[in-house]
Amino acid sequence: MARLIALAGLPGVGKSSIAQQLARRCGAIWLRIDSMDQAIWASGTAPRDLFDWSYRAAQAIAADNLALGLDVIADCVNDCQEARDGWEVAAQRTGAEIKWLEVVCRDPIEHRRRIETRSSDIAGLALPDWNAVAVRTYDKWNRDRLVIDTAHRNLQVCVDEALDLLR
């Protein structure tokens, strides 16, 4: 059975770093919303607010790959119930198992430091500043999830913990 590993968490907590390593180690397809957003914006015709466009496209691509029996890692903030529901539907339509992995940084000083010092590996992608992250709405959870706290922990330890939790 194919598996959808849906990551969630605020910008700067380490989602993409963990997702990339999980995909490499599991042989899964990595769907990164930031890459999709930037590719759309690079067209020069898209509005700054893409609403749920990238999420819907990624969920359709996820469903296509899950239907082929391939594992998929969804790397996005997933801050609202509607986004989370879309991943659930993609898994249900294909008979795939879904696992939620929320990535957090429970030390706000460390989280802010990461936001203020990080750079993007996606050409042209404008990263949010601390103020944008601090005021972002992030819905409470209404479903089971696994949680990884990345505060003061290196990437390898977090990825190993995620793999252990996902087993």
Account of the protein in words:
By secondary structure, this protein is of the alpha/beta class. Helices cover 46% and strands 16% of the residues. The chain has helices at residues 15-26, 33-41, 53-67, 81-94, 108-117, 130-134, 155-166, and strands spanning 3-8, 29-32, 72-75, 97-104, 146-149. A five-stranded parallel β-sheet has the order 2-3-1-4-5, with helices on both faces. Helix 3 (53-67) packs parallel to helix 4 (81-94). It is globular and about 40 Å long. The mean pLDDT is 97.
Low-confidence stretches: none
**How big a fraction of the residues is strand?**
15-25%
Report helical residue fraction: 40-55%
Biggest sheet: strands side by side, in what order? 2-3-1-4-5
Helix/strand order, N-terminal first: EHEHHEHEHHEH
- Count of individual beta strands: 5
- By DSSP (H or I, 4+ residues per run), the number of helices equals 7
What is the averaged pLDDT score? Answer: 97
Given helix and strand content, the structural type is alpha/beta
Whole-Å distance between the termini?
14 Å
Shape: globular
Q: Whole-number radius of gyration?
A: 15 Å
Biggest sheet descriptor:
5 strands, parallel
Describe this protein with a few key phrases.
alpha/beta
Summarize the structure.
With 167 residues, this protein is α/β, with parallel strands linked by helices. It is 46% helix and 16% strand. It has a 5-stranded parallel β-sheet, with helices on both faces.
